[in-house]
Design a protein that fits this description.
This protein is an alpha+beta fold. It has a domain of 103 residues. Helices cover 13% and strands 29% of the residues. It contains 2 helices and 8 strands. Strands 1-2-3-4-5-6-7-8 form an 8-stranded antiparallel beta barrel. The longest helix is centred in the first third of the chain and has 19 residues.
Length: 173
């Protein structure tokens, strides 16, 4: 019994000593190089700085492009017609342009459309494409990924990509 009390007393003494230790240093060591903050410095607005609306914060806090965030209606005659990009930040300067007759990519590829065949989930388009080589016949496969709100592009002559909708074509003058 005496041994148990002695062990208990030793443990309490150890805890008491541990409680008297100073807290470990957690702040970085300041060698006099730290900036002094002014009392009247503006307080950062966390919500504004984090761009809660990720689309509005994409390319230098630009507004979301018209039509972005969804796909063109599935009952539209040629749903693929419009401006598309690999990501929203590319909509302004690097959009793929799909018209009723052709595709033009930011890399300079051009495809002239022949037969456009509606298929489940999209279109198969017979095309003649020029992409860093002489023109060649190709089949462009466009499929709409409804849940991802994107259009999947496949071709033999132009690199495949997932594209987001940037909006309709500009109005003709």
């Amino acid at each position: 019994m005496f041994g148990t009390r002695l062990i208990l007393a030793g443990m309490l003494a150890a805890l008491g000593v541990a409680g008297c230790r100073p807290a470990p240093e957690t702040a970085p060591i300041d060698n006099g190089t730290a900036k002094v903050e002014a009392d009247d410095a503006p307080v950062a607005d966390l919500n504004a700085s984090l761009a809660l609306d990720q689309l509005a914060g994409a390319e230098n806090h630009m507004a979301a492009p018209e039509g972005f965030g969804g796909l063109p209606p599935d009952d539209r005659a040629l749903r693929f017609v419009g401006r598309w990009a690999a990501e929203v930040g590319m909509c302004r300067s690097q959009a793929w342009v799909f018209t009723h007759e052709r595709l033009t990519t930011p890399a300079g590829s051009v495809c002239e459309f022949g037969d456009i065949t509606p298929v489940d989930g999209g279109y198969d388009i017979a095309a003649r494409c020029t992409a860093e080589a002489p023109p060649r016949d190709d089949t462009i496969r466009l499929r709409f990924a409804e849940s991802a709100r994107a259009m999947l592009f496949e071709s033999e002559s132009v690199a495949g990509s997932g594209l987001v909708y940037c909006g309709p074509l500009p109005a003709a003058d």
